[in-house]
TrEMBL record:
Domain of life: Bacteria
Record flagged with keyword Magnesium: no
Protein's UniProt keywords contain Hydrolase: no
UniProt-recorded name of the protein: 2-oxoglutarate-dependent ethylene/succinate-forming enzyme
GO terms for biological process, alphabetical: ethylene biosynthetic process
Family that this chain belongs to: Belongs to the iron/ascorbate-dependent oxidoreductase family.
InterPro entries: DIOX_N (IPR026992), IPNS-like_FE2OG_OXY (IPR044861), IPNS-like_sf (IPR027443), Iron_ascorbate_oxido_reductase (IPR050231), Oxoglu/Fe-dep_dioxygenase_dom (IPR005123)
Catalyses which reaction(s): 2-oxoglutarate + O2 + 2 H(+) = ethene + 3 CO2 + H2O; L-arginine + 2-oxoglutarate + O2 = guanidine + L-glutamate 5-semialdehyde + succinate + CO2
The organism of origin for this protein: Candidatus Accumulibacter adjunctus
Database matches in Pfam families: 2OG-FeII_Oxy, DIOX_N
């Protein structure tokens, strides 16, 4: 079995036989590894190139331009940040679903502080990024629909969890060059707090994914290919039938690396609960050689919760790992 597996997403909208084969392949990849590559995903190549080019151009701008969009000026946790700490060694520009109506006002739950608009560098940038966000979210929900089918759920189960719009997150990331090649991480090993994450990366390389045996595999970039990983939310809801894949990024040796993960998330008010199905048989997993940052420890029993509340704890209050030693 090649690592990671590549699926042809053209099957998703094809006739019944091709669709069934795609759904089976997707289900198996998300169950076995929680990670796969996707070709023929339907997002125009020209749009993917434009997003990567806009991201690279932004990170090449003078520090004053980045400071203007700094996340500390944002009331809803969006904008630029430069992180150089034990977990991250990168710059990023953080966007989310544009949702001016219904944003926080006194009396509303705190997690609506995450709603609102984005600090765009300029109008052309906004137009490209919003086009990409709509396309990647549509792809994400097509994949979730297929995964719901594998779990025996009715069509569009994930899309219909609430009437509010999904809280899509999109990060433009630039990894700093580390010429000494000391193998430090651009981002340390972690799982994503998402249903699924769809990643667009430039041609530099550095992403690695961990299999069930604890072995790390590189994910070499290929033109036109998107990477998809299961996040903790889907692992929790599917009672472990789908596996949140740990991943990390080794800092590039010779040139900046740009990547654009899109976190396909529920709406803020969605109630996330483990589905009424027997839990997956406990698969043996390798003892942790390296700490994996996770919001919820793997396999922990989980009660129903409101997604926005968990997201506010993570972002607004800094609870991004269950291990208190990570938070100091
Ligand atoms: O840059 C990448 O390839 C992965 C980024 C990532 O895992 C994250 O930001 O959650
Ligand atoms: Fe990630």
């Amino acid at each position: 079995m090649p690592h990671p597996v590549t699926l042809d997403a053209a099957g998703i909208a094809a006739g019944a036989t091709a669709r069934a084969a795609f759904v089976r392949g997707l289900g198996a990849a998300c169950r076995d590894e929680g990670f796969l590559l996707l070709q023929n995903h339907g997002i125009p190549a020209e749009l993917c190139r434009a997003v990567l080019a806009d991201a690279a151009a932004f990170f090449a701008r003078p520090a004053a331009d980045k400071e203007r969009l700094h996340i500390r000026h944002s009331t809803n946790h969006r904008g630029f940040s430069r992180m150089q700490n034990s977990r991250d060694w990168r710059e990023q520009l953080h966007f989310a679903a544009e949702w001016p109506e219904g944003a926080w006002s006194p009396g509303k739950p705190d997690h609506y502080r995450l709603a609102g608009g984005n600090p765009w560098p300029d109008a052309a940038f906004a137009s490209t990024l919003l086009r990409y966000m709509a396309a990647v979210q549509a792809l994400g929900f097509r994949l979730l629909d297929a995964l719901g089918e594998c779990l025996g759920l009715p069509p569009r189960h994930f899309e219909r969890l609430s009437d509010e719009p999904p809280y899509l997150l999109l990060k433009l990331i630039s990894y700093h060059v580390q010429p000494a090649r000391n193998q430090r991480n651009g981002v340390a090993a972690h799982c994503d707090w998402s249903w699924i994450t769809i990643l667009l990366q430039d041609s530099t390389g550095g992403l690695e994914v961990q299999d069930r045996n604890g072995e790390w595999w590189p994910v070499p970039p290929q033109p036109g290919i998107l990477a998809v990983n299961v996040g903790e939310l889907l692992e929790i809801q599917s009672r472990g039938h789908f596996r949140a894949a740990p991943h990390r990024v080794i800092s590039p040796a010779t040139r900046q690396r740009v990547s654009v993960p899109a976190f396909i998330n529920p709406p803020l008010d969605a109630r996330i609960a483990p589905l009424a199905m027997p839990p997956a048989p406990i698969a043996p997993h390798a003892p942790e050689k390296e700490h994996i940052h996770r919001v919820v420890p793997q396999g922990a029993a989980c009660e129903a919760f409101v997604f926005g509340e968990s997201e506010w704890r993570r972002k607004g209050l800094g609870g991004w790992c269950h291990d208190p030693r990570c938070l100091s």
